[in-house]
Structure prediction request, 378 residues.
Amino acid sequence: MAITALLIALLPASIVWTSSDANKYRKLVWVSVFLTFDLIVFGAFTRLTDSGLGCPDWPGCYGAANPFLAHEQIVAAESLMPTGPVTVFKAWIEMIHRYLAMTIGILIVAMMAQSWYQWIRTRRVEYAPWLPTFLFFFVCLQGAFGAWTVTLKLQPVIVTTHLLLGLGLLAILAWYGGRQNQLIAPVRSVVSASPPAMRNIRILALVSGLLLLVQLALGGWTSTNYATLACTDFPLCGGKLIPDMDFEHGFTLWRELGKTAAGHYLPFSALTAIHWTHRNVGLIVALAAGYTAWRAWDHQALHKTARNIVMTLCVQIATGIATIFLSFPLTIAVLHNAGAALLVLLLTVLNYKAKYQHDLAKKAASSASHPPASTVRH
Prediction:
């Protein structure tokens, strides 16, 4: 498994090495961001195709490094249950997901090693190793939840946490990438906004990010409990504005998939509660993120990110509604998950840019009120 992951990691490593970017370290960070986004989208595809147990052990597949070597066992399991969790197709999907995850882990190890090496040699601030080291331990935690996802047979709270950690990894890497950009090629002009105005945008961006985190948890909980089609109409749910719902069983965290904490089958009203909550919190997130983007729209340094947030919100709402009316088509469901990851990326970038511009605005205001002594006339 390790050799396979190392061979796969050679491809992104070669992209970094042959890049025209003068700073290979920054390129490594952004390649890791790109691959993490891909991993999240492919993880959604793995989950939505019911391939999470395509190889029912971990980290290999029936103890082998790849499905080729485990072909006999996979075929035997598929012949016993042709529509079950283990098939040749699902095994490959699951293992590709694991290979990609291990590749990102290798890139983060390389990032940490390079940061420590350069920091010891140069003490340059862009190579400060604290965040890359934190990323290493974070990705190890993510890997542990990936293992528990399999060994605990897709227990919803574990799968949802695994998803949230993946999105958290994407956010941290994006923040680090933004920091690398600004340290290497800093913006020298301040946007036309006072520190209080930029501070307000920064607060709005932070609140929008926190609301998005809640919505991501609800989205993961909806997906891992297979509650996507608990409501098959919109904007009503089962023909009602407020349908019959069982919040107690729906939001009991520690339980098996499809079961209550007592081991009984999960009632449909519990799935309805999960879906209905996700749908309505989504409306709150759309309003908050949309308002934040509107406030950031007129600022040159934030305009592009704000515009992309608005476009992504529109697509996200459309794919969410289409998933309901078209009875959960795989392509649209994957796009909906990709949209969620893109919102994480964009709101992280907006938060970083707002913080950076706020700091610049404060420095400019301080310089204006306290000019250098050499410029003061006596």
In short: The chain is about 70% helix and 0% strand. The chain has two domains: 1-184, 194-365. Residues 237 and 276 are 7 Å apart (CA to CA). The radius of gyration is 23 Å.
